[in-house]
Specification:
Length: 81
C-alpha cells in the first residue's frame, strides 16, 4: 500500500514537472535586459551602503532583499505597461 502511494506521488510529481518544463520551453518567462538588471544591482548597492553609512558594514541578506524588491518593481513597470 505504501509503495503504491509512493509510486503514484512520484508519477504525479513527474507529470507536473514535465508539464512545467514544456510550458517554459514553449512559452518562456520574459527576462529584463542586462542594462536594467545592472542598474537595479547598483541602486541596491548604493541604497544599502547609504543606509549603513555610520556603524558596521551591511550584510549580504539586506542587499538581496533590496535587489529582490527592486527587481519585481522594475519587472512590473517594464512588462505591465
Amino acid at each position: 500500500m505504501t509503495l503504491g502511494v509512493a509510486i503514484l506521488e512520484f508519477l504525479f510529481w513527474s507529470i507536473e514537472k514535465s508539464f512545467n518544463y514544456l510550458k517554459e520551453y514553449f512559452f518562456p518567462t520574459p527576462q529584463l535586459p542586462d542594462e536594467i538588471i545592472d542598474a537595479i544591482e547598483q541602486e541596491a548597492h548604493d541604497f544599502v551602503w547609504n543606509m549603513h553609512r555610520v556603524g558596521d558594514e551591511p550584510n549580504f541578506g539586506e542587499y538581496m532583499q533590496v535587489v529582490h524588491y527592486l527587481y519585481y518593481k522594475k519587472y512590473d513597470e517594464y512588462f505591465l505597461k
